[in-house]
Amino acid sequence: MFRDGSRLERFTYGLAKWTAVAGGVALLAMITIVIASIIGRAFIWAGLKPIMGDYELVGIGMGFAAFSFIPWAHFERGHALVSILTDLFSTRVNAWILVITDMMMVVAAVFIAWRLWLGMLDKFRYHETTILLGMPLGWAYALGLIGAVVLIPVSVFVLGRSFTYALAGKREPHKSGDVL
Amino acid sequence: MTPIVLGLIGFPIVLVLIFLRVPIGLAMLGVGIAGSAMITGSLNPVMAQFKNLTYSTYANESLSVVPLFLLMGQFATLGGLSAGLFRAAASWLGHRKGGMAMAAIGASAGFGAICGSSLATAATMGRVALPELKKYGYSDALATGAIAAGGTLGILIPPSIILVIFAVLTEQNIAKLFMAAFVPGILAALGYMLVTAVYVRVWPEGGGVRPRASYRRRLHEFLAIWPVLLVFVMVIGGIYTGIFTPTEAAAVGAAGTGLIALAQGSLDFDKVIGAILATATSTAMIFLIVLGAAALNGFFALSQMPQVAAAWVAEQGFNPWLVMAVVLVFYLIMGCVMDSLSMILLTVPIIYPMMLGLDFGLPPDEFSIWFGILVLIVVEVGLITPPVGMNLFIINAMSPGTRMTETYRGVLPFVVSDIVRTAILVAFPPITLFMVWLLF
To answer: What does each of the 180 residues of chain A score in pLDDT, given as a tens digit?
Structure first.
């Protein structure tokens, strides 16, 4: 059920991928806003003006984008790690280390989403808003919550995947994970 | 246990977890949360903290520079700018001894000026330059070594993602750091070219020459790289002159390289998705470590360990320059096993206050900038030192039939030049700082 090419795998892949792409679209929208604002600023003499609160919009867009990228990075195993010591261990040991770290990721995913959810409720309750535009911060948190929530099923799938490989005593095939 | 003891054992625990292949951000996050809870004797403060900490870390306007610069690099790669840069550099340098390898280095420097990441620079240059170098009879060792070393220019020459992170961590001005990085970055490129020139004289079989290109041709090739120059001038010039904030400059850069890629006809739907996903992976990786660092530094601040350690070092009356040497060597060694960004986020919050307490005859602001550039250089050397220099792996994998040991041998002279350059920059802070003095 967790094997490559299974229905569940294709679904999780699609979920992680398109969430990340949505974040990328937000990134492109941020670029557009910033550039529109720069043009507005440059042509004040011609009656244009910069976009009010462009920084707040960029911050909110960044919140959404940054959270939405995590499931994809986790699915593709893009996280930075040090394998110089564990390379000396057997395939089997490494497979189980992966299972344990994947469990940690599930715990972290649930913890982050749960606290973010409560943080969002606080923001709504106290009607906190951004300074210039007066946008409710609760909605900004809600946008971040999308990626944080998607990470939960994705991290559970990734755990199931590494568990399946560990049981079979095999190494998980290398993913493309881009590093810096 | 007292808070300070907890702080002191917290750091080695993070290291042990990291060496057991726990993702670095996750290890820092876990120890940060556990440590804070142990010091306060309750989970409640951490629980309350995390209602906002994740969001405020991720929705950070200064950090939005990171994905924007990453996207800019992706578009620059898709736009085929590396090929144009290499052709131009080769037309000017290719006929010299070792000239094609120098051209690869020069083109990497040019690409580094519009890309903030080393691996992206190494990868794109490898694709373009490696076949050419082999065609003109360069040895596998020199070809792979020079391109791997050239890749580090992606980060050394501004814009640089690592400097953005350092600026956020130490609350320094990104524009000043970019400014300060400029001359050391150029020195790095010149140093690598010098190494190449010496290399092919000591081992003449290492490099070949290409027929001299006419000046007409050179001018033509040089003019063909105008889009790169334009983007560089807008991004870096915009930041230096203060016309753009770093976020604005990064947005302009991403849009600029995006338009170039579009004009080249190399930007279809799938490519855009690919560029977004690559940006997503790197961004998520960086941000997870930034989040982990935020949690870990919250714990360290509670434990007061960094202040106590800094006070202890200051009290011992060590020679500051000796401490600097020890710290830089420590980074060089750590860089052999860990990626540069993780290393900076893990250690700078402890080491930076310690170094700030020592007297190098510089005002704190200038010291921070100088120290940032030095750290940047030594952690980047980690990308080209065995056993886990990522640039070496990438370039070696592109060159089938080249043994890893040959690549190690080829890159060694470049590492030596890095160490010499670091020593010079340590001894003469004005080399790094005069651009900052000049323009601020």
So the answer is: 777 778 999 999 999 999 999 999 999 999 999 999 999 998 888 888 888 888 899 999 999 999 999 999 999 998 888 888 888 999 999 999 999 999 999 999 999 999 999 999 999 999 998 888 888 999 999 999 999 999 999 999 999 999 999 999 888 876 544 343
B63, B71, B280 ranked by CB distance to A62: nearest: B63
Whole-angstrom CA distances from B248 to A44, A97, B156, B222, B296 are: 17, 42, 21, 28, 30
Tokens representing residue A179 in the block: 């590093």
Q: Max Cα separation, chain B?
A: 75
ipTM computed for the complex? 0.93
Residue A112 C-alpha, separation from nearest chain B C-alpha, in angstroms: 7
Rg of chain B in Å (alpha carbons): 22
The string over B398-417, giving b where at least 16 C-beta atoms fall within 10 Å of a residue's C-beta and e elsewhere, is bbeebeeebbbbbbbbbbeb
N- to C-terminal Cα separation, chain A: 32
Burial of B429 (0-12, 13-18, 19+ CB in 10 A): buried
pLDDT, tens digit (0-9, with 9 covering 90-100), for B344-393: 999 999 999 999 989 999 999 999 999 999 999 999 898 898 877 888 98
**A121 Cα to chain B: minimum distance (Å):** 10
Q: Note whether B255 contacts A31, CB cutoff 8 Å.
A: yes
Whole-angstrom distance between the N-terminal and C-terminal Cα of chain B? Answer: 48
What pTM does this model have? 0.91
d(CA B30, CA B19): 15
**Cα distance between residue A54 and residue A66, in whole Å:** 18
**CB atoms A67 and B58 under 8 Å:** yes
- A31, A40 Cβ separation under 8 angstroms: no
